[in-house]
Amino acid sequence: MLFRLLYLLVGRVFGWLVLLTRGNASKEVEILVLRHEIAVLVELCHAAMSWPKRNAGAPVCAR
């Protein structure tokens, strides 16, 4: 249990260090990529539903 906590803590610290050293341009690109992934998932969610389910499930798939 202690090893797992230490592992998660070290991983989180290294993740923060990586974010601090990256430039703003790479952060902006990452945000754009994540927005695109969300848009694709929303489209897949809507395409997989029939019309009655789409009307009932629209709030679930909304951004």
Helix run count: 3
**Mean pLDDT over all positions:** 83
Quaternary = single chain
Q: Tell me the fraction of residues in β-strands, as a range.
A: under 5%
Protein name: Secreted protein
Task: Describe the structure in your own words.
It comes from Nonomuraea africana. This is Secreted protein. 87% of the residues lie in helices and 0% in strands. The chain is an all-alpha fold and 63 residues long. The protein has a domain at 23-63. The longest helix is centred in the middle third of the chain and has 24 residues, at 24-47. It is flat, with a radius of gyration of 19 Å.
List keywords for this structure.
63 residues; mainly alpha
Outline the fold blueprint.
Blueprint: H1 2-21, H2 24-47, H3 51-61
Structure summary:
With 63 residues, the chain is mostly helical.
